[in-house]
User: What shape does this take?
Amino acid sequence: MCDERTQQDAEVYLRRSGNLTRRRFGALSLGTGAASLLPLTAAAHAVTATDIEVPTPDGVADCHFVHPSSGAHAGVLVWPDALGLRPAFEEMGRRLAEAGYAVLVVNPYYRTAKAPVAPEGASFRDESTRAKIIPLMRALSPRHTVTDARAFVAFLDSQDAVAGDRKMGTTGYCMGGAMTMRTAAEFPDRIGAGASFHGGRLVTDAPDSPHLLVGTMNAHYLVAIAENDDAKEPEAKTTLRRAFAAAGLPAEIEVYAGTLHGWCSLDSAVYHEAQAERAWGRLLALFDRALA
Assistant: This one.
């Protein structure tokens, strides 16, 4: 989860590695080239993308819906990281759509602000960004996630581009990792696969900890853990493995060497291209198995 230590780790990493290359920095800071940073999808579907609004009991959520331009496909609900819905996540949604999925990328902060909630190129390394985003994060509760998930799953099921006879998937980054687990627990008959990328607070001491919900799920899972997150919570992976094993659910739970919290988000300063691509491949393999 994004916290002070996470930012310190990122600062040290960037000073040592110079990981933010000139090409990546130029593309992201200008807001022109997020898509150009992603490898091309083999046999990619032509896709249709739309900014849409989804009514919920608490208001209207602004979201991005992208799907193959023809046919009906498995739906996927994407929960962004702490910086919320923004161009990088729209491009990541597009890439999933090009692989053959109908993808809804949501703004979890819609109750307070429309997306994007931070300016282009914003980073949790910036004090001003943290001052804006942390209160938004703290205002979200597990109840909000469940309420929103009901609306978002219903929206997907109402779309001609979504195949009602195929299970849905859900992916989440940072705070979104826990949101996928709450979604899968709320819809055990609908969510067939979930993936958490550098997810935060998946295992806590609270009575509503996400890992305690595994027994009510019916979803195959991928949990891709940042190396520095694992260093802070080394027992979390073991607890998750035990929970999924007890529930009889397949789960691939792995610490990705050399990665820091945020390593899968395309516009993150600590984006680790090689490991992010490996995790992406595991996600597509999971969806191919579980959402057929």
